[in-house]
Design a protein that fits this description.
Elements lengths: L2 H5 L5 E4 L17 H6 L3 H10 L15 H8 L5 H7 L22 E2 L6 E2 L1 H7 L22 E5 L6 E3 H18 L14 H18 L1
Bound molecules: zinc ion (3 copies).
């Protein structure tokens, strides 16, 4: 067997124990980041802190570059940011929590490091808090979207896996069925066009927030 074959899962669908990835033990050092201070304040006060201080996006809150086909959508003449945001389902693509367009909600808007989709602060913290364990054959065990186990779908082109829940809640039952029925599925990282609408949402929301600040 060559190395590439060893890295890939033998079949598209497999079950993984439903345990979240290991989280490193919290340290006892006091957390003095301004973010930690903010989280103890009621949301109205947090908004005031944002507006009174010079507001800056954290690097983790800035969407990655769009694919050329996605940029083309944004350049369409009749594309309206407001209409788009009104119709888009604004939610954390990992836990499904609603995320609004208000400025204060920027505190809860993060960009998924691998997928360029919207993610809430909690999921972002959880996702970045541990090490993704791998199978002895090198393939990943936990969903690259939410970091959880469960029934996962394996990519035919790379070692990544994605859980059934994430596919279903973000892309629907039909997409889930088509992945399950295919012998060769390229994951959302290998074929990002599959999640274009989420990339566009991040960009539109980011631009909209920028405008609110001007
Ligand atoms: Zn979330
Ligand atoms: Zn998942
Ligand atoms: Zn892949």
């Amino acid at each position: 067997m060559d190395l590439m074959e060893q890295l890939l899962c033998p079949q598209v669908c497999m079950d993984v124990e439903d345990t979240p990835l290991e989280i490193e033990a919290p340290t006892n050092e006091p957390d003095e980041s301004p973010e930690a201070d903010l989280s103890s304040l009621p949301i109205e006060l947090r908004a005031r802190v944002i507006l009174d201080n010079e507001f800056e996006f954290l690097p983790e809150q800035v969407p990655h570059e769009l694919l050329p086909s996605e940029e083309a959508v944004l350049k369409e003449e009749d594309f309206s940011q407001v209409d788009y945001l009104k119709n888009a389902k604004l939610h954390c693509t990992a836990c499904n929590k609603h995320i609004g367009t208000a400025l204060v909600e920027q505190l809860d808007r993060y960009i998924h490091p691998e997928l360029n989709t919207l993610m809430c602060h909690n999921c972002f913290k959880f996702y970045g808090s541990g090490v993704f364990e791998k199978d002895e054959d090198g393939s990943e065990l936990y969903c690259k979207w939410c970091g959880q186990g469960g029934t996962v779908m394996c990519c035919s082109d790379c070692p990544l896996v994605f859980c059934q829940n994430c596919v279903k809640k973000n892309l629907g039952n039909q997409k889930l069925a088509s992945i399950k029925n295919s012998d060769n599925w390229s994951c959302f990282k290998c074929d990002p066009e599959q999640i274009s609408k989420f990339h566009i949402t991040c960009h539109v929301l980011h631009e909209y927030t920028n405008k609110q600040l001007r």
